[in-house]
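@channel sequence for tomorrow's demo:
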Amino acid sequence: MKITKIAAALLPLAAGMMVFAQSNVVEEVAWVIGDQPIWKSEIEEQYNNMQYEHVDLLGDPYCVIPEQLAIEKLYLHQAELDTVEVAESMVQAEVDNRINSFITELGSKEKLEQYFRKSLPDMRNAMADMIRNQYRVREVQRNITSGVKATPSDVRKYYDKLSKDSVPYVPLQVEVEIITLNPVIPRQEIEDIKARLRDYSDRITRGESDFSTLAILYSDDRGSAVRGGELGFAGRATFDPEFAAVAFNLNDPKKVSKIVESQYGFHIIQLIEKRGDRVNCRHILLRPKVSDSDLRESLERLDSIRTDMVVDKKFTFEEATILSNDKDTRNNHGQMVNQETGTTRFEMSQLPQEVAKAVDTMKVGDVSKPFIMIDNKLNREVVAMVKLTNRIDGHKANMADDYQVIKNMYENAEREAILRRWLEKKIADTYVRIEDGWRNCEFMHKGWVKEKASASKE
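structure tokens (generated this afternoon):
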């Protein structure tokens, strides 16, 4: 397991804090790191949960797990020395996101508690400790490796030393520009939606219906609908600005908000609870439906733009992007940016399905015919056309075409080496005791057993 994967490896281990307490295991110390014990029951619990979650372990679990726990303790000790703190609001926001995700997947809080065999407060506390530790470990790692900076000369030397088998294969990649049009929603459709929301609000206010029941039955946000419209505790930045402006001004849990329009549709909101700078509320979302005639009209408009551009040469694709309704790409002359990498290159699997289908057979410079696609941000149908500006066939990485890929490899290798050296020095400088029955292992790092041997001689 590589050093840079340590923090990720700790996640499934720490997740075990939430499940199946091993109350029938006699407490026995397996390792001691400084003055911190690692209990046999702790290791057993982690192992049980990794099996439960089908997490692959590279090696003997009774060697791998305690070493990972020991590594975490070394990083956390350094976090104490460096006074590394984590914003509690960030921890709680992550807890809320994960709890809400679990509830969405399982259907209710009660099913969540039954599944994990713990009360929700206990799960929240355990998860908060886990996430807090993860953030602190990452911050320590970031501080230790902050000096890593790659020059073109460094990257070239690194690339030249790579064996042929170590040079990565880069799959087919493309660069794409896009123009999207959002079909006009008829005024009557919007009025009908507002009338429905006013009716729901009146029924709730009169006590005829419960907000959560109406959310389950009618909300277009199916993720929260299964929880009666509950969104879970979140900060202002989590929500659409128009939604947040209303949600954070609610004070009476018995009242229903006015109708709120956001980029996702129209909402009514009910406060559940406020905690400092976070709020938990319910909402009912109704999205205006795009009619077939509106889609056809937008397709025809975009096709007319394409004719003026491709056939009559009145303007370029880049000039036409000023007409696009997607402000993110419009402000970048239509250029799509890969959110996973921060670059303009996409593997085909990283593109929206409809875009990938459109560019699959296109040549560089071609402009597609207009097509209908789902805008994931709006969760509604829009009309689009794309231009293929670059196609890079699958190949072994090279300095000319894949400098960023190789630079990332070099920087990751440097970080791994720095962290490995830091850990092995930390191991050498820390009191470590590994009990009989736990030492016969091929550990990832040197020094664990040697430190025990040295201590015994003294």
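heads up for whoever presents: Residues 1-25, 451-458 have pLDDT under 50 and may be disordered.
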